[in-house]
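Handover notes (outgoing to incoming on-call)

Open items:
1. Glycerol-3-phosphate acyltransferase: sequence verified, structure written out, both below. Nothing else pending on this one.
2. Nothing else urgent.
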Amino acid sequence: MIITILIFILAYLLGSLVPGVWIGQLFYHVDIRKVGSGNIGTTNSFRVLGPKAGTLVLLLDLLKGTLAGMLPMIFDSHINAMLVGLAAIIGHTYPIWLKFKGGKAVATSAGVLLAYNPSFFLLIVLVFVLTLLISSMVSMSAMVTFTFATLSSLYYHDWILTIVAVSLTIFVFYRHRTNIVRIKNGTESTVPFGWYYQKKKSTH
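Glycerol-3-phosphate acyltransferase structure tokens:
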């Protein structure tokens, strides 16, 4: 029982690590919570700090999710890795270091999935990249990818994966509610590539 509690606490603390904020403050003297969208994750890090820092934040956010998902194996426990990963996702969204005001947990969720089911992770990454190349919007890509993950999880006949996928999809849509409004209004931020970006650029 003590090991189980320890695993969940460690997973939460791993998820609570905020590389976007720390890298911005340490190397760029910028608090990304006060610039751009104000989000602490990958997209805002790319936008505010640049591609090198953004890539590093992406990898670190992925890594903390993966490490959290591997904790049951490290401690030789039979706890489902996906359930442990949820603690890391909660940690990223509500980090103790930032007064419980965190990010949208897209990269951290992907990291947990990598630890839980690598082949499914690769499929999800492919869907995300293809959607991004079409929509040019990270928010749109995230919502489409999580919806796809929920539907395709049924193929694996893994009820824990499906329940977690459904829960995360609802949560991701909730966290992106302001993005949904901007998408409807045609004012959502885009990445500087992809079909939609090129189309929008050619009309101006």
